[in-house]
Amino acid sequence: MLGQVPRSREHPSNCCDRYIKSLPPQTSHWKTGAVDDGVVRLEPWGDEEAAWYAETVCDPEIQRFTTDSPTLDAAQVQAAINRLRSADKEEGFLIRDAASGAPLGNIALTHDGQAGEVSYWLAPEARGQGVATRALVLFTAWIFKNTTLTELRLRAHQDNVASQKVALRAGYRRDPQRDGRQEAKGVVWPMLGFALARPELA
Ligand SMILES: CC(C)(COP(=O)(O)OP(=O)(O)OC[C@H]1O[C@@H](n2cnc3c(N)ncnc32)[C@H](O)[C@@H]1OP(=O)(O)O)[C@@H](O)C(=O)NCCC(=O)NCCS
Q: Among 109, 120, 136, 157, which residue has the most ligand 1 atoms within 8 Å of its CB, making it the best to mutate?
């Protein structure tokens, strides 16, 4: 939920130069903690979105490819939002349409102070428009600007072609060393690893 992703603790690796070159112009609103590229905006979760989160994760593709529980309710999401606000090893943003303000999805980070793991999902109506790539590029830049993490990682189910494309387009590189099997929802998922080093360490 929110920042709940599988952890991996392997060693850092080399950077992908495409990431630095692909960063879009950004508008940062540090007082509110929001960041946007003119098309999507990332902002802290508000209490009013707890019910939306709980409803949206019932989507079959979110259930198929993320660890969010299908029985999640708004009270549980609210508790997770409250925890997130004071957590020092987690970050999470609501993805919004920058123009309309419509909620589009979730993007989150858990970390151990050195390396972090990113996860995301979009509501069905927000898919197929490059939103996840924009959100991941923005979030990655935000993380490297606001933390000292040296590497970001993510893992996608081997059947989740859309997520794998998003990772590569956002500058992450395939990292077969982080491929692995993950138990989720009573079954074992074959996962493919992706990684991105802090740009100045490239
Ligand atoms: C994965 C996800 C975030 C992708 O976000 P998105 O902004 O919709 O990504 P896009 O629609 O731009 O798709 C990226 C690419 O994957 C392709 N794609 C989408 N669904 C696909 C599928 N089922 N099979 C193969 N390719 C697919 C798209 O065609 C696109 O490629 P193209 O631009 O070359 O045509 C979104 O689909 C989602 O929320 N899925 C459910 C939750 C999830 O999987 N989260 C990630 C867990 S690792």
A: 120
Region for residue 128 given its phi and psi (left: phi exceeds 0; alpha: psi -120 to 50; beta: otherwise)? left
Q: pTM (2 decimals)?
A: 0.88
CATH label, 17-201, candidates 3.40.30.10, 3.40.50.720, 3.40.630.30, 3.10.150.10: 3.40.630.30
Token pair, residue 83, equals 């925890």
Mean pLDDT of the chain: 88
Cα of 196 to ligand 1 centre, how many Å?
Answer: 20
| Predicted pLDDT of residue 13 | 30
pLDDT of residue 8: 38
What whole-number distance in Å separates Cα of residue 116 and Cα of residue 152? 5
What ranges in the chain are assigned the alpha helix state H? 17-22, 50-56, 60-65, 74-86, 131-146, 161-169
Ligand 1 in reach of 166 Cβ (< 6 A): yes
* Alpha-carbon 184 to chain mean position: 18
Using the atom order of ligand 1, give the atom closest to the CA of residue 65.
44
pLDDT band at 4 (very low <50, low <70, confident <90, very high): low
Instruction: Say whether pLDDT at 6 is over 60.
Output: no
pLDDT surpassing 80 at residue 109:
yes
Residue ranges of domains in the chain? 17-201
Ligand 1 pocket check for 5: Cβ under 6 Å: no
